[in-house]
């Protein structure tokens, strides 16, 4: 092997560094993890075992287990079994833990039993980012993304899916019963083995039907008419034309440094009810009196935008294009101009649509307007197939109109949203792999997501300030 770089012989004696500290450089991210956890008040955060018991076998300090997990998620090692192996062979982890090697069950139980405290650690790091002045623009982008749960699609049932599966089993049973009758008419030497196989299949299908009937009882008792057998909190959700069983993760991302300011794991597939909640969480985390939020059309809901307005939060959410009139080539509601002084609408033909009555629909107070001159209007075919064109107006419609004007004056806002909030989701999903979550139930999944978000934010801040700069900030 001439003219290649040569390694040393395995039998050659070597003088290794005298201490583990010599293996870890001054700028190694593992030093950031060590300083960060040592500065936390684990008792105040609510970690179990932070105060040792007077009797019994000594336990691992929660700081050690927290360091293991943060290191694991920073290095894309979320599995407790893999972390157990790494603690036994990884020099960085040996340095971080003082050569302690907890078993995988101890590591997994720590994450399961300290979900709320782990979420608190994530919030505390966001608070540090705020103190360092990393949220300078007071603008966040909000979005949600579906993450797969450990629950397989075949282990999730809705009413339609259950009915379809029961019909398939009934059809199969009837088909095997017919085949069983035919087998009885054949020679005994052929009929008996065949009948035994068919009967075995029928019994298996009947057992499956009994299981489905038990699931049907659970389904009827469930508030949202869904049952997941592996992870009870996971739900079937639509994503890009297909469906997954998982969770809807909401994030609010700072537009200046793309740090995740706030996040929340939900098992509701729709984003429509999340805008004001995420905006308020973001404002609290940023400790800012003023805040602007931008989100896509999926967040447009009148009540949520009103809630943001009442909280003093400026929202940028485009209105969905759901007008059936425009799809049919007729005037949509935007073609009708509202005159606030007269409380009436002016139609494209120049006629006034006056107020007629007010009613409450789905909790919203709506005013109705129309004109009595529609029947003789030359533009009626372009306007409505009904007797007259009726326009309805929400009592707080002025807030929605003001928001649309803001969007018109900020044409780049949706591009800012896209380049801000979609990249973190792509990064997190790449880190987590195809299976995404490893834990079950909302509590465990929330802890797992908080560790991923903390790792993401740590990497971002180390990129911005450098490892040495972040360690100085943590120790200050």
UniProtKB/TrEMBL annotation:
Sample GO molecular function, one term: DNA binding
UniProt entry tagged with the keyword Metal-binding: no
Superkingdom of the source species: Bacteria
Gene Ontology BP annotations: DNA transposition
Ranges of residues in domain Transposase IS4-like: 232-458
Pfam families referenced in this protein's UniProt entry, alphabetically: DDE_Tnp_1, DUF772
Domain Transposase InsH N-terminal positions: 19-112
Keyword Coiled coil belongs to the record: yes
InterPro entries: IS1182_transpos, Transposase_11, Transposase_InsH_N
Coiled coil start-end: 159-222
Record NCBIfam families: transpos_IS1182
Name this protein carries in UniProt: Transposase
């Amino acid at each position: 092997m001439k003219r290649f770089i040569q390694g040393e012989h395995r039998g050659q004696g070597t003088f290794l560094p005298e201490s583990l500290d010599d293996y870890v450089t001054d700028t190694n991210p593992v030093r950031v993890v060590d300083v960060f956890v040592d500065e936390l008040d684990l008792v105040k955060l609510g970690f179990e075992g932070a105060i040792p018991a007077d009797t019994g076998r000594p336990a691992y300090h929660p700081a050690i287990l927290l360091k293991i997990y943060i290191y694991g998620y920073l290095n894309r090692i979320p599995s407790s079994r893999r972390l157990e192996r790494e603690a036994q062979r990884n020099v960085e982890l040996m340095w971080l833990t003082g050569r302690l090697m907890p078993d995988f069950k101890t590591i997994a139980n720590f994450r399961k039993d300290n979900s709320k405290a782990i979420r608190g650690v994530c919030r505390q790091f966001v608070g540090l980012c705020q103190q360092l002045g990393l949220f300078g623009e007071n603008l966040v982008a909000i979005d949600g993304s579906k993450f797969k749960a450990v629950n397989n699609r075949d282990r999730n049932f809705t009413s339609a899916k259950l009915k379809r599966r029961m019909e398939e089993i009934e059809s199969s049973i009837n088909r095997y019963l017919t085949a069983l009758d035919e087998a009885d008419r054949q020679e005994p030497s052929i009929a008996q083995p065949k009948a035994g196989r068919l009967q075995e299949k029928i019994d298996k299908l009947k057992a499956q039907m009994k299981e489905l009937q038990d699931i049907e009882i659970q389904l009827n008792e469930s508030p949202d008419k869904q049952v997941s057998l592996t992870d009870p909190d996971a739900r079937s959700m639509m994503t890009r034309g297909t469906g997954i069983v998982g969770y809807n993760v909401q994030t609010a991302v700072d537009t200046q440094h793309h740090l995740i300011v706030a996040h929340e794991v939900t098992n509701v597939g729709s984003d429509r009810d999340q805008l004001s909640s995420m905006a308020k969480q973001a404002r609290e985390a940023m400790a800012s009196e003023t805040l602007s939020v931008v989100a896509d059309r999926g967040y447009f809901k009148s009540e949520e935008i009103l809630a943001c307005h009442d909280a003093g939060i400026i929202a940028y959410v485009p209105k969905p294009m759901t007008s059936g009139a425009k799809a049919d080539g007729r005037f949509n509601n935007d073609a009708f101009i509202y005159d606030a002084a007269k409380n009436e609408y002016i139609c494209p033909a120049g006629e006034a649509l006056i107020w007629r009555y007010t009613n409450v629909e789905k909790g919203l107070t709506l005013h109705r307007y129309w004109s009595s001159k529609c029947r003789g209007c030359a533009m009626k075919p372009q306007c409505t197939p009904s007797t007259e064109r009726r326009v309805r107006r929400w009592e707080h419609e002025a807030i929605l109109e003001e928001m649309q004007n803001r969007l018109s004056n900020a044409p780049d806002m949706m591009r800012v949203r896209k380049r801000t909030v979609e990249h973190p989701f792509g990064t997190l999903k790449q880190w987590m792999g195809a299976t995404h979550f490893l834990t079950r139930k909302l509590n465990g999944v929330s802890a797992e997501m908080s560790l991923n978000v903390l790792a993401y934010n740590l990497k971002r801040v180390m990129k911005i300030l450098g490892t040495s700069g972040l360690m100085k900030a943590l120790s200050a």
